[in-house]
Write a structure and sequence with these properties.
Length: 229
């Protein structure tokens, strides 16, 4: 027994820091303990492309970013490509995303964009990504609602316009025959109790859990279908 810990085999998952680069990593063990790696999972990852909210701001620890929560719940590998302040559907990102052999792509960029940018960039991004990856589902995610939107008409107008732009692009892509597209509405995602953000925008751990709650039923069947191929 080691320092009162019950002996036995356990699985551990290690999350790297959200905001600090890693130059080296060491794991210390007492002499009587041993560690061995698990075999890599055979399923293709869920790739999340988005903003600081996707990145994990302001989760209390790396494992509480919503892509990490979903990875545990779905038992799927995830790749978090959340770029704080820079999740803006740049067309070049479609080429980079297409280099990844993803089971599912989740595009969650509206918090960094206005309606004009959404209308301009959504269709080119999705078309190029679909050209690179013909079979992987592409999930387009609505914006979360600012917690203070009930007090600020400008925020309500912003949400309405950007959501309409994304929904319009989604409908046009569907009408053009693109398959495997999914739209997720998140208007009431963080609830209206004021408990889910630190600044009316970035989620607390509670907010991250609520995002995962909304995304799980959408992603579970998509991920299971891709894993069975």
């Amino acid at each position: 027994m080691i320092d009162g810990i019950e002996p036995g085999q356990r699985e551990y998952m290690l999350y790297l820091p959200l905001y600090n680069g890693v130059k080296s990593l060491e794991i210390g063990l007492p002499p009587q303990a041993a560690m061995k790696p698990l075999a890599p999972r055979g399923s293709r990852p869920i790739v999340f492309y988005g903003t600081s909210i996707t990145h994990g701001g302001c989760a209390s620890r790396p494992g509480m970013a919503y892509p990490a929560i979903l990875g545990r719940r779905l038992d799927q590998p995830t790749i978090n490509l959340g770029f704080s302040g820079n999740g803006t559907m740049d067309l070049e990102l479609a080429d980079l995303l297409g280099e990844l052999d993803a089971g599912v792509y989740v595009i969650d960029c509206l918090p960094n964009m206005n309606a004009a940018a959404v209308a301009e960039r959504t269709e080119p991004l999705v078309r190029r990504l679909r050209s690179a990856r013909p079979n992987a589902p592409i999930v387009l995610v609505d914006d979360r609602t600012f917690a203070n939107a009930p007090l600020l008409p400008a925020h309500r107008r912003h949400h309405a316009a950007s959501r309409a732009a994304l929904k319009g692009a989604f409908q046009r892509l569907q009408a053009a025959g693109l398959k495997g597209l999914v739209y997720v509405e998140r208007e009431n995602l963080l609830d209206d109790d004021g408990e889910a953000t630190v600044d009316s925008s970035h989620p607390t751990d509670l907010g991250m859990s609520r995002i995962a709650d909304a995304m799980e039923p959408v992603l579970r069947p998509l991920a299971a279908k891709q894993s069975s191929r």
